[in-house]
Amino acid sequence: MTRKPFGRNGFFCSDCGYESPKWMGFCSSCHSNQPLVEAPSRSHSNRKGWINPASSGLKELASISYDIGSRISSGFQELDRVLGGGIVPGSLILIAGEPGIGKSTLLLQIAHQISLTKRTITYISGEESDHQIKLRSDRLDISGENVFLLTETNVETIVEHLEASLPSLVIIDSVQTLSSSDIGLAPGSITQVRTSVLTLLEWAKARNIPLLLSGHVTKDGTIAGPRVLEHMVDAVLYLEGEPLNANRIVHSQKNRFGSTNEVAMFSMESNGLKEVVDPSQTLLANRSLDAVGSSVVPTIGGSRPLMVEIQALTSPTYGPSPKRTANGIDLSRLVMITTVLAQRSHLNLGNRDVTVNVAGGLRISDPGCDLALALAIASCSKNLPIKQGLVAIGEVGLSGELRPVSQLDRRIQEASRLGFTSCILPISAQRHKMQGLNPLFATTISMAIRLGLSNHAESRNP
Known about the structure:
Layout: E1 11-12, E2 19-20, E3 37-38, H1 77-82, E4 92-97, H2 103-115, E5 121-125, H3 130-139, E6 147-151, H4 155-165, E7 169-173, H5 190-207, E8 211-216, H6 228-232, E9 235-240, E10 247-255, E11 263-269, E12 272-275, H7 279-283, E13 294-301, E14 304-316, E15 324-327, H8 331-344, E16 352-358, H9 370-382, E17 390-392, E18 395-396, E19 402-403, H10 408-417, E20 422-426, E21 438-442, H11 445-452
Parallel strand pairs: 4-8, 4-9, 5-6, 5-7, 7-8, 15-16, 17-20, 20-21
Antiparallel strand pairs: 1-2, 1-3, 9-10, 10-11, 11-12, 13-14, 14-16, 18-19
Helix pairs in contact: 8-9, 9-11
């Protein structure tokens, strides 16, 4: 039976938010298995326009001026670096993470730090009561001066309060609880989230007031709600960490006012999140020097190098096919490296399960970590530790060759700063300065394994 749209509202996809003027069955954009949903009828309320009329019209780019020092410091140097130097007025920043990871704690601490500069902050909560927020502030030793609370979920009511107070910063916890009176759907739905954020965006851009939004992530690690939400905001930060680990990682996936893929580390303590000034030292603090299957690599986290430990473990396969398990590394990358090791270095991995972990809860996608990953797997497979004081840098190709990586000088400098003495590098890196490291050049993965593993072959049972 042919369906007709209700009025002029049309239909939309509940997964990606794609809109269609007529019912087409399923979404042609994301190819979801859920059929298109009829859009609810909108109430024709006389909503005030929050866009500044002066902002309309054509402007010559050369005639636009701005204050380079107008960024607002969050009170955390590491977070300011991830944001590109601080919070830009009028920007929308989305902080996403799993429930209980520390998003509300981080937002309340940011509000406290900015309030110390005599700025007013409006903290809007749709998940907790004002008494619950006060309990958290007491635990974090936050006085709450210049921080004003509002427990509300209706976006029209929120904008009325914001228009009356005009704070220096607005914090909303969380975006999935917002709803609009114009949309007859439950809070958290695709249309509700998109409409609510669009309303706040229009108000914030017109008033040049920054907004910090918290958002939940789904089981597959994506932000709950429409994907268009990530396109609407100016910056997307992910707060990640293991449940039983005090380390918290903040990394930027999108930033219109700075570089992406920046990383900052925090430590969750009894009185809140504390900055980790030297993440490399923290990530390697509990590393065993003579452990089998452990390698170290200087990777690049945004604009600075980070020393990371990669751990590998091989065990006999008891199923019909060997398993490959990756934590902190892309699984397809792990499969490629194990295949290269089996074909080019003749490691017997066809009947072995391979498990790889990046210590400290960090997630890396740097191709320069290929060689360190391969050394860790080879170390465990051969039951030989990697030479002490050694780091490995290089990308591994399918032919087993070692390829050069970017920002090699900064990686070498970071390894030298932490006391490492030697480094395995591709042969093309001979023109770089070693900064006190003893270079060990290799052309293939097999040659790198011979250079990297200890010569003493004491018998150890895996």
